[in-house]
Amino acid sequence: MTTLRSGHIIKLMPVDIETYKTIRDNLIKNNINHYTYKLKSEKTYRVVIRGLHASENIDMIKEELQAKGHAVRQIVNVLHRTTKEKLPLYFVDLEPQANNKDIFSIKYINHVKVTIEAPYKKKEVLQCKRCQRFGHCKNQCFRPFRCVKCGNDHPTSACTKTPESEAVCANCQGKHPASYKGCIKYKQ
């Protein structure tokens, strides 16, 4: 156990997975504000498939990958950012297994030449959409909600702030939304 930031945060580092799960379950059961990270053994192994047509049947892709020994959790056809049209690009999430890296050697899926590669790493700082703090995501956060627009203790979807009123940052109380990249807390 370590104390961070002059006593405001306590970091627990369990010695094994069972201890981690016990601590996490007790924190959730007792409704204690905290966040955690996903265990490496629970994380999916994500790859990108390029070269398949955008209208390709996802179930066919899944069947072919499973026939080649990969346990597929999910396949998502990527949509264009603005037009929302399907792109010839697929995100594939594999269950954690020893043979996950073998997927990069696959050259053909459904008789179509494909390229399988690792997804690009995002260069942005990770920000929680629940508590608006940096360094973790909402899936593992059990802290109270903080609004991205007004900084109050409610989900952003329940915010009643009008467009004319000034935004308030949940992190620094500045006059901007919590997602603003110029925020002093974001830069730190």
TrEMBL record:
Organism expressing this protein natively: Parnassius apollo
Pfam family, one: PRE_C2HC
InterPro entries: Pre_C2HC_dom
Phylogenetic placement of the source organism: Eukaryota, Metazoa, Ecdysozoa, Arthropoda, Hexapoda
Domain Pre-C2HC: 58-126
Protein's UniProt name: (apollo) hypothetical protein
